[in-house]
From TrEMBL:
CDD domains: SDR_a2. Pfam families: DUF2867, NAD_binding_10. It comes from the Bacteria. InterPro entries: ComplexI_NDUFA9_subunit, DUF2867, NAD(P)-bd_dom, NAD(P)-bd_dom_sf. Transmembrane segments: none annotated. Residues 7-110 form the NAD(P)-binding domain. This is Uncharacterized protein YbjT (DUF2867 family).
């Protein structure tokens, strides 16, 4: 079918597009700023049009000649999100009817029965009503918390669980929630395009588990390998105050945290599973909560290293990060990035890089490296005692002091994974490339993914020493290469 997707730079929209392409549909995507899509992997397979859902002319051009409209727009970051979403839904509804669109598919939120809805849930329910009243057959899929790296709800859960080993929580953490994995949401969205024309209604969708928010945090901690989280419930702490706390201890913006937490005041559990009469459950079944968390944790937003962390995820899976994901999503990742131009040739610089460690040392602050090695040995780690097998050559997979050679692309890049005792995961990348006007550009990157609050505190504690350790490494590696060239060319 010919499908047009509104909200393509959002979390769900960016992941839905490759699923539609794989299903054989022709896809047009609508973005206010098409430049945001410059690095998405599926860009060459879709038609991109500039459009804003509040601009009638742009909306009419976007839906022209299309059979299915996917409406995935939510303006939570704005104070007037309800007004903006209402206006956008009305324009899209009218344009879809005029263009002869056969189906509208919309993703909303589960509406608790007999409850005074939060502004967030009320707005989503209103948009669904507008689209269903358009005269175009509409499927509204209603979901609670979507579990996937990059989802605002999941990121809030992730940061709270990882950064707070003990927390004071309001009563709403005991409310029941039926989370759903992002891959199951996408499964329903893709198949909703093919429902019979007479289907014009809302469907609740959810995973197989019903949990409290407190249980979700504790289960997250188990999957992430964190210590048991101590929770002290209190009878007060309003959603607004909770949002201020979330804003303080997580990078999730307050403009998002407030409506999300207001929605958690309700129990969001599906009241029916009628969707199964039209779209059977996935062949492997709906994804359990723990499995969904495991999939979400296999990737974080930095592009290179995390693809090697786990075999549980495949390239292009919904748990993969996208360039369009917000900067605060994907979990914490700390980096120390440095580069330096040297007149030494790339081959000479590479020879210094590949000879690092063992008897050759680490070209930086020997006392600090030795002290860190002894501390690691005392605490049961490998320390610096393993050395290296060959003085000049390294092989992928072999040990190098307290590191493991994870990847070597000779003569360009060496990536080492730390095997010392750390509250997190760490890598060190050393690389070289020819400089445009002669010589070489040496680049170095230390990467750390913290594990719980201890990981964050560890990085903060050692950060003051990075200039001496990593800065010294840059200077000494390049100067060693330059001396080598000078010795080689001197009479």
């Amino acid at each position: 079918m010919r499908c047009v997707v509104f909200g393509v730079t959002g979390y769900i929209g960016g992941r839905l597009v490759p699923e539609l392409i794989q299903a054989g549909h022709e896809v047009r995507v609508v973005a206010r700023t098409p430049a945001k899509l410059a690095e998405v992997p599926w860009l060459e397979q879709v038609e991109v049009v500039r459009g804003d859902v509040t601009d009638g002319d742009q909306v009419r051009c976007a839906v022209a000649d299309q059979e299915v409209v996917y409406y995935l727009v939510h303006s939570l970051a704005r104070r007037d999100f309800a007004d903006v979403d209402r206006a956008g839904a009305q324009l899209v509804a009218r344009a879809a009817k005029s263009a002869g669109v056969r189906r509208i598919v919309y993703l909303g939120g589960i509406v608790p029965p007999h409850a005074e809805l939060s502004r967030h849930l009320a707005s989503r329910a209103e948009v669904g009503e507008i689209l269903r009243a358009s005269g175009v057959p509409t499927v509204e899929l209603r979901a609670a918390v979507i579990i996937g790296s990059g989802s605002a709800s999941f990121e809030m859960l992730r940061y709270l669980s990882e950064r707070l080993p003990a927390m004071v929580t309001p009563r709403w953490v005991h409310n029941r929630i039926q989370p759903i994995a992002v891959r199951d949401v996408l499964y329903y969205l893709v198949h909703a395009a093919e429902l019979p024309a007479e289907v014009n209604r809302a469907f609740d969708v959810g995973g197989p588990d019903v949990l409290t928010y407190l249980t979700m945090m504790r289960e997250y901690a188990v999957v992430a390998g964190l210590n048991h989280r101590v929770v002290l419930p209190v009878p007060v702490l309003t959603p607004w105050l909770s949002a201020q706390w979330v804003n303080l201890v997580t990078p999730v913006p307050r403009a998002l945290a407030v409506p999300l937490i207001e929605s958690l005041v309700h129990e969001v559990v599906r009241t029916e599973h009628d969707i199964a009469a039209y779209i059977p459950d996935p062949p492997e079944g709906l994804t359990p909560y723990r499995c969904a968390v495991e999939l979400a944790l296999t990737r974080i937003r930095n592009a290179d290293v995390p693809t090697r962390w786990s075999d549980a995820s495949t390239e292009g899976a919904p748990s993969d990060p996208l360039p369009t994901d917000p900067d605060w999503s994907g979990g914490s990742l700390y980096e120390d990035v440095r580069q330096h131009h040297t007149w030494a040739d790339p081959d000479t610089v590479w020879a210094v890089i590949e000879s690092i460690g063992g008897e050759n040392g680490w070209y930086s602050f020997p006392l600090a490296w030795s002290l860190r090695g002894w501390i690691d040995r005392i605490t049961g780690g490998v320390g610096l005692r393993r050395g290296r097998k060959h003085p000049q050559r390294l092989r992928s997979g072999e040990s190098l002091d307290w590191w493991r050679v994870e990847h070597i692309d000779r003569p360009h890049l060496l990536r080492l994974r730390a095997e010392m005792r750390l509250p997190g995961l760490a890598w060190l990348e050393l690389g070289v490339e020819p400089a445009p006007h002669g010589g070489s550009r040496y680049h170095q990157r230390a990467i750390f993914q913290p594990h719980g609050l201890a990981g964050h505190l560890y990085w903060k504690a050692i950060s003051p020493f990075h200039s001496a350790v990593f800065g010294g490494m840059v200077r000494n590696i390049t100067s060693t290469a330059e001396r080598t060239v000078a010795d080689r060319t001197s009479p």
